[in-house]
Design goal:
alpha/beta, globular, 8 strands, two-stranded antiparallel sheet, six-stranded parallel beta sheet
Length: 294
């Protein structure tokens, strides 16, 4: 019985501003910066601006770590950490690791606006950054993010098929995604698209719809992954998947098919998508795409 309880579950910290900044020397930040320099040509630091995501996407398991009630850091607290990254590690860019960057702020004002005002107050608009967004972010928030120095938005598109949008409980209309991509381009931001292949209900027809949608969105960067039933997600079935070797499974391979297509068929489509948009794949996706070709 004692061996089964290996994870301590404590109450979430409501005021995340009270959490000390991480010890990046202990975390070998210099090694991480060497990797970003090699992959992206820049020294890129990463941090969290919030905890939790209230969305109910079936493929995501982050709720077992963060819960579903967003807890935002104040812009002041965030930018204090960013300034420390600049002063101590000479970063040239930073990225937010939050599942979704923009949800309501403590002030009731747009979090994007709060962030822009704090960045401008410190004169840090010159320092580029990036974040993850849902495809239904408002045009006004995109404008505020651009003013704050945001140069890349990573948007979870997932699919171009309405059926799959419904199946995965994405809660975002494809037309909203179209508007977000158009607006981000107008604001001079790069747009990255996350695409997931092989969620339940996927067929050749829905994959073709996704292909056409990606053509329409014309993202600047992109990655194509295959649905993996991570424990804690709605795709995970403890009755049939408990014995799976999840240390050998990730979104680029190792998982069994969750739809009517076979695992080999999904790998084929992943290769075809990756070949078509090879020049726009993210560095990690390029590495994994090369592995698929072997």
């Amino acid at each position: 019985e004692e061996a089964k309880e290996r994870v301590l579950k404590l109450p979430f910290i409501a005021d995340v501003d009270t959490i000390p900044f991480p010890d990046r020397v202990l975390a070998r930040m210099s090694h991480q910066l060497d990797i970003t320099q090699e992959l992206d040509g820049k020294r890129i630091g990463s941090l969290f601006g919030s905890r939790a995501c209230p969305a109910k996407c079936t493929f995501c398991s982050s709720r077992i770590v963060w819960g579903r009630s967003p807890r935002n850091r104040s812009p002041k607290n965030i930018m204090d950490e960013v300034e420390r990254l600049v002063d101590t590690f000479k970063i040239e860019r930073y990225r937010f690791a939050d599942d979704i960057f923009c949800f309501s702020s403590q002030t009731g004002v747009s979090k994007a606006r709060d962030m822009a005002e704090e960045v401008q107050k410190r004169g840090l608009e010159w320092l580029p950054w990036e974040c993850n967004l849902r495809g239904n972010i408002s045009e006004t928030d995109l404008e505020w993010l651009a003013r704050a120095g945001c140069k890349l938005v990573n948007i979870g598109v997932e699919t171009g098929a309405e059926l799959i949008v419904k199946n995965i409980k994405k809660g975002v209309l494809l037309d909203s995604v179209r508007r977000s991509f158009r607006k981000a381009r107008e604001m001079g931001m790069e747009r990255r698209s996350y695409i997931i292949l092989g969620t339940p209900g996927e067929t050749v027809e829905t994959l073709q719809q996704t292909w056409q949608f990606v053509e329409e969105l014309d993202p600047d960067r992109i990655s194509f992954t295959v649905a993996a039933p991570y424990p804690g997600s709605d795709l995970y079935d403890p009755a049939t998947m408990k014995a799976e070797r999840f240390d050998l499974i990730d979104e680029y391979g190792g998982a069994k098919s969750l739809c009517s297509l076979t695992t080999d068929e999904l790998k084929y489509w992943q290769r075809e998508f990756s070949r078509r948009w090879k020049e726009r794949l993210t560095p990690h996706a390029v590495q994994r795409a090369d592995e698929l070709e072997r």
